[in-house]
């Protein structure tokens, strides 16, 4: 079951060219397109004539034209043309979804349109900040969205899954000083790994770092689908942890948006921004390819987990100390799901 009354990333804004883009979101086929004015729109991917997928059609000056018999739909879902007749019944319109372009993303609202408030979309200004050049992509994931959020909320996996990339020593990750706080919209955790050798990715990015480093990872989960991350590393014992001196060294900001596709798959929109050699496009490229290597490692694990969970279920699984943030995150999701199940009148009396 999906949380519907929330903003999800449907696509990167630059994924939409002159062709329509079909994508299943929260179990529903959706078609995204830009109209003649460049305005993005999202419609149910279902022509109301004979049920053809509109994503197989083409964008015209008047709107999205079905590839079967030529009905044309405007961005608000109205049918605006039926070849061979002037009368256009209202019922020929298809469902449209609220869609907002912000911070390089197209955000969709799959629930009750009357409740959609664009002011609730999270801010991630780094996508258009020249001090944080970034690169982004979308990974199709063969696993439930919550498994991927789990993965991002428990970083003790870094020492095991990512030993050759962003990870490094497993015990450094397990022993990290971790602070977990609940927030208005989710959970935030900060981890400090002090006086440790740099992980391979960090050493490659900033070779001049000293033999050991102090490394931080700040992750904020904004329910139900996004995580923003700030990670950095500076020379060990130079006041990053106790005096807040976090300038220089290695700095990266990551954006993670996880949009369910089906109960067993999701779309992973992520970006990595380089805050350490901002005038060197190759550094941004290199960071991106290192992150690709690391996230490929995660994707393999999540697909394997999904298969086992499909067989054995999740009910007998055990939480360990390292799961603190993950458990908070799951509680927030459960509360949101419960609120959607509760009829509004009952909710008002609680
Ligand atoms: S099915 Fe779309 S126009 Fe006929
Ligand atoms: Fe990972």
Helical residue percent?
A: 10-25%
How many helices? 8
Give the overall form.
globular
* CATH secondary-structure class of the largest domain: Alpha Beta
How can the largest sheet be summarized?
A: 7 strands, antiparallel
Strand content: 25-35%
Fold-level CATH name of the largest domain: Naphthalene 1,2-dioxygenase Alpha Subunit, Chain A, domain 1
Average pLDDT confidence is 94
The CATH homologous superfamily of the largest domain corresponds to Naphthalene 1,2-dioxygenase Alpha Subunit, Chain A, domain 1
Fill in the keyword field for this structure.
binds fe (ii) ion; Naphthalene 1,2-dioxygenase Alpha Subunit, Chain A, domain 1; 2 domains; 350 residues; binds FE2/S2 (inorganic) cluster; alpha+beta; 4-stranded antiparallel beta sheet
Briefly say what this structure is.
Helix 1 (145-153) packs antiparallel against helix 7 (324-341). The chain has helices at residues 145-153, 158-161, 170-174, 200-205, 240-243, 281-312, 324-341, 344-349, and strands spanning 7-12, 21-25, 28-34, 40-44, 58-59, 64-65, 72-73, 79-81, 96-97, 99-102, 105-109, 134-141, 177-183, 186-197, 212-222, 226-235, 250-262, 265-274.
């Amino acid at each position: 079951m999906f949380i519907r009354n929330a903003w999800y990333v449907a696509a990167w804004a630059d994924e939409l060219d002159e062709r329509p883009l079909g994508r299943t979101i929260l179990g529903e086929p959706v078609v995204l397109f830009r109209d003649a004015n460049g305005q993005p729109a999202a419609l149910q991917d279902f022509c109301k004539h004979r049920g053809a997928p509109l994503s197989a059609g083409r964008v015209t000056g008047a709107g999205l034209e079905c590839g079967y018999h030529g009905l044309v739909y405007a961005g608000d879902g109205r049918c605006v043309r039926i070849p061979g007749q002037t009368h256009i019944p209202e019922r020929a319109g298809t469902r449209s979804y609220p869609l907002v372009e912000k911070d390089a993303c197209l955000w969709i609202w799959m629930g009750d349109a009357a409740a959609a408030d664009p002011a609730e979309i999270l801010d991630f200004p780094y996508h258009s900040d020249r001090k944080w050049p970034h690169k982004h992509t979308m990974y199709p994931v063969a696993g439930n969205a919550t498994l991927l959020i789990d993965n991002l909320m428990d970083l003790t996996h870094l020492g095991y899954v990512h030993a050759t990339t962003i990870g490094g020593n497993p015990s450094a990750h397990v022993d990290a000083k971790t602070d977990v706080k609940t927030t208005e919209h989710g959970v935030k955790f900060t981890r400090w790994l002090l006086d440790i050798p740099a992980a391979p990715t960090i050493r490659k990015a900033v070779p001049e770092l000293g033999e050991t480093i102090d490394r931080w990872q700040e992750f904020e989960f904004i329910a139900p689908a996004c995580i923003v991350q700030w990670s950095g590393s500076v020379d060990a014992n130079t006041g990053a942890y106790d005096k807040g001196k976090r300038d220089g060294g290695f700095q990266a900001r990551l954006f993670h948006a996880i949009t369910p596709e089906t109960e067993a798959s999701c779309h992973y929109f992520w970006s990595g921004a380089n805050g350490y050699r901002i005038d060197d496009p190759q550094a941004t490229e290199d960071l991106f390819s290192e992150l690709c290597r690391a996230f490929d490692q995660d994707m393999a694990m999540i697909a394997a987990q999904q298969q086992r969970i499909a067989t054995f279920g999740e009910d007998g699984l055990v939480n360990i100390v390292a799961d603190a943030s993950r458990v908070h995150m799951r509680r927030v999701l459960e509360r949101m799901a419960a609120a959607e199940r509760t009829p509004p009148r009952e909710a008002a009396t609680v």
